[in-house]
Design a protein that fits this description.
Elements (H helix, E strand, L loop, with lengths): L1 H17 L6 H5 L22 E4 L5 E4 L14 E5 L4 E5 L10 E4 L5 E4 L3 E3 L2 E3 L5 E5 L4 E5 L10 E4 L5 E4 L12 E5 L4 E5 L10 E4 L5 E4 L10 E3 L3
Antiparallel strand pairs: 1-2, 2-3, 3-4, 5-6, 6-9, 7-8, 9-10, 11-12, 12-13, 13-14, 15-16, 16-17
């Protein structure tokens, strides 16, 4: 036993002296943040405040700026792609419509669905939008998509197990909190209304559970302490 300890100590000493001793990866990774390349122009301070960041199928991240009251018209709706392998940004096509408070969800095809929102640009307010669009990462183009039944800002978009996307809540204007929900079918590019929440919500979260149900939590509205569970049909 003593001989084994001495041999082990000798091996460790040799590794340390040769500079090849490596700490476990988990130990190095825990709690460490490293700088990444900064967002490129024309992302100004206001357009960085509420960006949307979505993971694409190829591993890139698509970042889209929001259209806020103080946004520069140059940056509203702008999009860029981040490559984590090279730590670099590249331009992407801008959205067809500059939006604030929109939501985004990946589709089975690898495209990205962007839904609703409103336009807060240069001090002007435009009511909530029912329009939607899809980003195709293979062609770097935004494609026209069927509109929602109800305009929505600050709604949620949750991909379901069958490939459809569930849109929940949001607000059609500055005063109302909508309890309704809609389902998007990418195979037919159509929206259908589905079961409503018991209360209206905006700014909430909606998480798909392992059994396919969706848990909706929090948000603005009445009795927001209440959470809800729903299943798509």
């Amino acid at each position: 036993m003593r001989l084994r300890r001495c041999a082990l100590a000798a091996i460790v000493a040799l590794l340390l002296l040769s500079g090849t001793f490596i700490r476990p990866t988990a130990t190095r990774a825990i709690g460490l943040w490293t700088p990444a390349a900064p967002l490129p122009a024309p992302f100004d301070a206001s357009s960085r405040e509420y960006v949307s960041a979505s993971l694409l199928r190829d591993g890139d991240v698509l970042v889209i700026s929001n259209a806020t009251f103080s946004s520069d018209a140059r940056s509203a709706g702008q999009a860029v792609r981040y490559n984590p392998t090279t730590d670099s940004w590249s331009p992407a096509s801008s959205m067809t419509t500059a939006r604030y408070g929109f939501t985004a969800a990946p589709l089975p095809s690898g495209q990205l669905l962007v839904v609703g929102g409103s336009s807060h640009l240069n001090g002007k307010y435009v009511p909530s939008l029912a329009t939607t669009e899809r980003y195709d990462p293979t062609t770097n183009r935004w494609l026209p998509t069927a509109s929602l039944h109800t305009p929505r800002e600050s709604a949620t978009a949750t991909p379901l197990l069958d490939g459809r996307v569930l849109i929940v809540g949001g607000t059609p204007d500055t005063e109302l909190y909508d309890p309704t929900a809609e389902l998007y079918d990418p195979a037919t590019d159509t929206w259908t209304m589905t079961g409503s929440l018991s209360i209206g919500r905006r700014g909430h979260t909606a998480t798909r559970l392992l059994d396919g149900r969706v848990l909706v939590v929090g948000g603005g509205g009445w009795k927001v302490i209440q959470a809800e569970l729903g299943r798509s049909v």
